[in-house]
UniProtKB/TrEMBL annotation:
UniProt xrefs under PANTHER family: P450, PUTATIVE (EUROFUNG)-RELATED, P450, PUTATIVE (EUROFUNG)-RELATED-RELATED
Keyword Metal-binding set for record: yes
Alphabetized InterPro entries for the sequence: Cyt_P450, Cyt_P450_sf, Cytochrome_P450_fung
GO terms of molecular function: heme binding; iron ion binding; monooxygenase activity; oxidoreductase activity, acting on paired donors, with incorporation or reduction of molecular oxygen
A Pfam family the protein falls into: p450
Signal peptide positions (record): none
Family the entry assigns: Belongs to the cytochrome P450 family.
Source organism superkingdom: Eukaryota
Keywords annotated in UniProt: Heme, Iron, Metal-binding, Monooxygenase, Oxidoreductase
Protein name: Cytochrome P450
Cofactor (UniProt): heme
Transmembrane segments: none
Statement: the UniProt record of this protein carries the keyword Coiled coil: no
Amino acid sequence: MGILTVLFSRLSLEHWAVIVIATLALIRFSKAVNKGHTESLPPGPRGWPILGNAFDIPVEYPWKVYRWWSQEFDSDIIALKLPGPPLIILNSARVAEERLNKRSMIYSDRPRMVMLNELVGAGWNLGLMPYGERFKVFRRLFTKHIDVPYCRPQAVVAVRKCLKDLLAADMHHDPIVRLMTGRFILSSGYGIDVNSADDSYIEIPETFIKGISPQRGAFLVDSFPILKYWPSTFPGAGFQHVAARLRKLADNARTLPFKFTKDELAKGTAKRSFAARYLETVLKDTPRSEIDDVEAIIGNMYIGMLVHSCFLLFKKKFDSYLYTVVP
């Protein structure tokens, strides 16, 4: 109680006014969203005002509960109303095939990621980008500028160095694998040579990847998008500070290696890479937007390969843990 008293005493009248207005706007927004969706949604549990079915989502054996709801409402498609977008549950293979495969252009998409795409600014990542024209453009650019045969020499060098390092190492192979991945990506993407897994060109994207891994849905702003306008100086704005930190990492991961290649190209010392190959073709009248898109495309390869590497290392640790608890 004492902590709350101190906290409330530090809030000025202006702060209280903004909090009250934001709360009322949040309630109004939630009602408007729910009202707009209610008539078009499939059947589902009734739920509470504002919170909807947030407390109805089963923690244990969710498939059994979902199946029971399907039987209760006589529908293979169930809707759970939540703060923000509803949760749609497809309860049969037939419905999933029909909606997500046969009519994928209508129903298959990524959810709105307010924290990652709008606050962190990671919307240039293909793994987070919603389907649409921009996604199609990025896919075409990726196919055009990233081709496997071109980077084969860098892959061979990275693998040979990795094998040599593995033979010389007694244990702790994880840094060697990380270094191999980093060597291949940075040399083929940007012409950058690295000799340590702790190199900043490897650490920056890895820190970003680890930072965004638990973020999807972890913040209230993903359920209440209006909170993205919440001032960072107000109480409860910790997510704004997290977003600012991750945004800086995302920007550095995308721009710093590309800038390195541009600088090397200007000095005439650039090595063979996807970035150098593209930048050599850039003309004075090349739109800045195209350069930014290609920068993002190569950044996608950069981030994507490191994500895969981090996943493999995580899987290895998980398997080791699993073997200790499962006879």
